[in-house]
């Protein structure tokens, strides 16, 4: 989702959802246009016990994107590499407050 959302040439996205992911190595977030940084909201969730993609990767995404001017809603969950009801509830709230507001 980050690769497509941050590099799409026409960038039709208002939001990006990244669930237990990692930032692709080839994306230089400093080179993403300011207009994309300002209008794209990003939801990031990651499990603290994830054995597939370590929590450090999720923290790295949040750190790099925040330092480069993106609007991040990031949260860690006590879970493995999964999507819990708590994640879905938080995602639902994020969509309503960040993407559907007028």
Please characterize this protein's 3D structure.
- There is one protein chain.
- The protein is α/β, with parallel strands linked by helices.
- It is built from 4 helices and 3 strands, in the order αβαβαβα.
- It has helices at 2-7, 34-39, 55-67, 85-99; strands at 15-19, 41-47, 71-77.
- Strands 1-2-3 form a 3-stranded parallel sheet, with helices on both faces.
- It is globular.
- The protein starts with a helix and ends with a helix.
Number of strands: 3
List unreliable stretches of 5+ residues: none
Residues in helices, as a percent range: 25-40%
**Going across the major beta sheet, what is the strand order?**
1-2-3
Shape call: globular
Helix and strand layout, with pairings?
Blueprint: H1 2-7, E1 15-19, H2 34-39, E2 41-47, H3 55-67, E3 71-77, H4 85-99
Parallel strand pairs: 1-2, 2-3
Q: Which descriptors would you attach to this protein?
A:
single chain; 102 residues; alpha/beta; 4 helices; 3 strands
In a nutshell, what does this entry contain?
The protein is an alpha/beta fold and about 100 residues long. It has 4 helices and 3 strands, in the order H-E-H-E-H-E-H. Helices cover about 40% and strands about 20% of the residues.
């Amino acid at each position: 989702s980050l690769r497509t959302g941050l590099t799409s040439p026409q960038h039709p996205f208002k939001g990006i959802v990244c669930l237990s992911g990692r930032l692709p190595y080839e994306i230089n977030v400093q080179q993403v246009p300011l207009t994309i940084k300002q209008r794209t909201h990003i939801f990031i969730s990651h499990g603290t016990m994830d054995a597939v993609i370590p929590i450090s990767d999720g923290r790295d995404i949040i750190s790099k994107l925040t330092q480069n001017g993106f609007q991040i809603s990031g949260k860690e969950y006590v879970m493995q590499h999964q999507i819990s009801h708590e994640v879905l509830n938080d995602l639902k709230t994020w969509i309503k407050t960040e993407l559907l507001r007028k």
